[in-house]
């Protein structure tokens, strides 16, 4: 963490009613992000385009139904800041809030037609114990609420604690996440159309790994949704 980030995070822990996107003071303690950030969310609307840049990441690798991200990741911008607060500083409300907003957009869209449940990308138990929560689970909770479909958060597990994808080169990312997921017993996902959810998509390698497993082992139909996209 650089010095500026450290100071930002220190300020946030001292003043919890600062907007996690732009760090301005929010007038109401119940607000998750400020009005200005909400009005200026860099929405991609990828879900309205079948062949969008996120879907293209999976071409030639897996047959999917749909893939989309809600927001464009903006380095050193509001989205990066919100993702950072959500992943590393316990702001779970952002996950629920953005998941709910994304779900409202997806509701009644072609993108979501036929989707039967939401699966958050699981963390390895060791990482979960360190962080205390899985941010993707909170995004999935928001989506579940807006879409009114089940949340399957105990169907799959992460069996290998791979090193962070941000620490390996783009070309090595596929190998880093190969065979890192496993199926849990008593699942009822066979043949289901599942929406696999993560916070940010870069190369799509981790989502691909879980999607391939569910497709191969349980004949699932696969769609992917993330909050932020770098593509
Ligand atoms: Zn703001």
Helix content: 25-40%
Order of helices and strands: HHHEHHEHHEHEEHE
Overall average pLDDT: 92
Proportion of residues in extended strands: 15-25%
Query: Which overall shape is indicated by the principal axes computed on the Cα atoms?
Result: globular
The CATH C-level name is: Alpha Beta
Largest sheet: 4 strands, parallel
Query: What small ligands are held by the chains?
Result: zinc ion
Return residue spans where pLDDT drops below 50 for at least 5 consecutive residues: none
The structure class reads: alpha/beta
Distance between the termini: 24 Å
Tell me the count of domains. Answer: 1
Strand sequence of the main sheet, in spatial order? Answer: 1-6-5-2
Gist?
By secondary structure, the chain is of the alpha/beta class. 37% of the residues lie in helices and 15% in strands. The chain has a single domain, classed as Rossmann fold.
Tell me the layout of helices and strands.
Elements: H1 3-14, H2 35-39, H3 53-56, E1 66-72, H4 78-88, H5 92-106, E2 117-120, H6 125-131, H7 135-147, E3 156-158, H8 173-176, E4 181-183, E5 193-201, H9 205-218, E6 221-229
Parallel strand pairs: 1-6, 2-5, 5-6
Antiparallel strand pairs: 3-4
Helix pairs in contact: 4-5, 5-7
Bound molecules: zinc ion.
Residues 19, 21-22, 24, 33-34, 36-37 line the site of zinc ion.
């Amino acid at each position: 963490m650089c010095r500026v980030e450290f100071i930002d995070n220190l300020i946030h822990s001292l003043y919890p009613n600062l907007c996690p996107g732009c760090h301005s003071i929010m007038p109401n303690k119940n607000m998750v992000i400020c009005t200005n950030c909400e009005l200026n969310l860099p929405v991609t609307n990828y879900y309205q385009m079948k062949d969008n840049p996120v879907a293209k990441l999976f071409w030639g690798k897996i047959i999917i139904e749909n893939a989309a991200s809600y927001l464009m990741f903006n380095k050193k911008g509001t989205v990066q800041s919100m993702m950072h607060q959500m992943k590393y500083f316990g702001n779970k409300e952002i996950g629920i809030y953005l998941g709910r907003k994304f779900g409202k957009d997806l509701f009644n869209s072609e993108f979501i037609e036929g989707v039967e449940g939401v699966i958050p990308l699981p963390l390895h138990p060791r990482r979960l114990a360190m962080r205390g929560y899985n941010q993707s689970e909170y995004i999935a909770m928001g989506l579940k609420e807006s879409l009114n479909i089940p949340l399957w958060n105990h169907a799959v597990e992460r069996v290998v604690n791979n090193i962070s994808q941000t620490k390996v080169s783009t070309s090595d990312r596929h190998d880093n996440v190969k065979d890192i997921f496993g199926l849990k017993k008593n699942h009822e996902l066979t043949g289901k159309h599942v929406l696999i959810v993560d916070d940010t998509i870069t190369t799509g390698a981790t989502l691909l790994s879980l999607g391939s497993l569910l497709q191969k082992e349980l004949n699932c139909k696969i769609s992917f949704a993330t909050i932020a996209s770098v593509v």
